[in-house]
Amino acid sequence: MKKILVSAAAGALAALVSSVASAGTLDTVKQKGFVQCGANTGLAGFGQPDAQGNWTGLDVDTCRAIAAAIFNDPTKIKFTPLSAKDRFTALQSGEVDVLVRNTTWTISRDTSLGLNFTGVNYYDGQGFMVRKSLKVASALELGGASVCVQQGTTTELNLADYFRANKLELKSVTFATSDETLKAYEAGRCDAFTTDASGLYSERLRLSKPDEHMVLPEIISKEPLGPSVRHGDDQWFDIVKWTLYAQLTAEELGVTQANVDQMMKSENPDVKRLLGTEGKFGEAMGLPNDWGYRIIKHVGNYGEMFERTVGQGSPLKIARGLNALWTKGGLQYAPPIR
């Protein structure tokens, strides 16, 4: 009987996801006049509202780019703050149109949750933060230490794997939310705090004395973070996917917010296809052919977006590293617009 109930529940979820997706997300978005984005509850550099409700961050700008492509207006968006526990249900049920919430792309999420990841807007990896007074220089010195971690995340699984693989004693202390996890670490309930390295730099700024804490050098996992959509709607999948690729292509071609109008006159075939002066690539997705121009005009290329949200122009000052273009030693690479 238990197996029958589980099977029925899985079937009902699949039917719900299929029903929501088959409705045509682009048409639904156009009818309501905005994109509903699943966002973080508050992670500096990625998704965070200020006291006036103004959202900023890399994931936020990714949502704005999608809205720009559709409406020629990056403000046609609404944000739904989601915890790690609630984020997938919100997307599956249709509460949000797209989930852009520093979420790791994994095989189980890609196959068993009814989701499609559309690309990687930030290549990350899990790390550790400790107090400098602990005098620890490596994660390999954390055997027997207590580690604060958010439950129900890949972070919790990676932590257990790392300690087991290195034959270290683990004392994990789990919490339901990222806020609770960080507060417990600052209160001294744990010796170390673990999450994605980008999150460590962000959360460190929230501590009362950030300079008393350091991020250890080890990266213990691969954490490709990116937007996801529901299974079953290829048109919407293509739109979200190619929004990021347009930004990467623009950076590679030297097309920026400042020069995009001038670049509309370019005779470079790659630039012409990106900005819609040649070909009908937008039409194939149900968008105007200047969809790429709209994205760059309103939000900028990937490099511009990165630098102002998490890079050198932001308080986090994270180096591009793996998120540099492939032409500059990084992993960011877009298929051709052709």
TrEMBL record:
This is Amino acid ABC transporter substrate-binding protein. PANTHER family: AMINO ACID ABC TRANSPORTER PERMEASE, AMINO-ACID ABC TRANSPORTER-BINDING PROTEIN YHDW-RELATED. It comes from Alsobacter ponti. InterPro entries: Bact_solute-bind_prot3, Solute-binding_3/MltF_N. The keyword Transport applies. Residues 34-263 form the Solute-binding protein family 3/N-terminal domain. Keywords: Signal, Transport. It holds the Pfam family SBP_bac_3. The keyword Signal applies.
